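#help-structures

NK: newbie question. if I give both the sequence and a SMILES, will the prediction place the ligand too? trying with fe (ii) ion
OV: yes, paste both and it writes out the complex. here, I ran yours:
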Amino acid sequence: MSDEHIKNIRPGERIEDLFVIRRIEMRDYEGRKYLVFNLGCSRGKIRGVYWGEDAEDLSHQFAENDVIKLCGVATDYRGERNIKIEAFRRATDDEIDITKLLPAGRYPREKLVESLYRRIDSVEDEYLGALLEAVFTDDFVEKFSIYPAAKLWHGAYLTGLVEHTLRVAKICDIACDFYPDCRKDLLMAGALLHDIGKVEEIKIGGFFDYSVAGRLVGHIVLGAIRVARAIEEIPDFPQNLAAEVLHLIVSHHGRQEFGSPVEPKTIEAMILHHADMLDGQTEGVQHIVQRELPAGREFSDFVKILGRYIYLDGYRSGEDFVDE
Ligand SMILES: [Fe+2]
Ligand SMILES: [Fe+2]
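OV: that's the protein plus ligand as structure tokens.
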């Protein structure tokens, strides 16, 4: 995602569009109240200012995460693009299209869904194949393939979850070949299922947030519950295989302090955990590189979650690494 489109808006251009309120603040200029907004859409962020007589009233009616439809004119404010808002109102449910409001991924969703089905079809084991089919119904895939992988940090864009899942599956596929006892079907099932709980953990509104179940239960347990329910419906599903699949899900964060109730105890669980970490962390760094490279600095801003600065010089844009 880039701010390109927003940067290309010219002063004087009329704007009539949907935006998410990321921040709203009432200010005062010589006794006159006005509103300052941080507005977001899938193309980036922009500042907006509203000077209407009803600014104070409206400040009580709108909050972060609300989607608004506004009309106004683009202006320059201290070298930054800005919208002088003439009028705005709450968007209706029919008008809201999350693909226009939220950050988008790098790849077409259909291509990602095709890759996902190819991975599912590669699992030959009768029971694991039946489990994947039971979980990844067309309705579920429709949802799974639009979700982000996280609220912030890595994969916080539409389709981020399926992209992450496919990269983890590919890393597992390659890693499995190094270890003679690794059971590829089991590992692949775990890779595809490991984060399905995120569909319940994350809530998509004006931007990504955690659901109540997400905060109270978390995606590891939510995913395990969904898989356990699906297993119950499959006749004669072997008990130990069920335990091993659930083990892959519940141990994938690797350590209790990272949210896994048990730590990896099989070859497949060890690989899955490291594949998940490898992709999560590297994708996070990749995101920082793409976001901050245009600023032309040698190092990124300090990245709190990693406790370090990322070196930026010398990168060109990312290569296509979706499974073919
Ligand atoms: Fe996870
Ligand atoms: Fe993951």
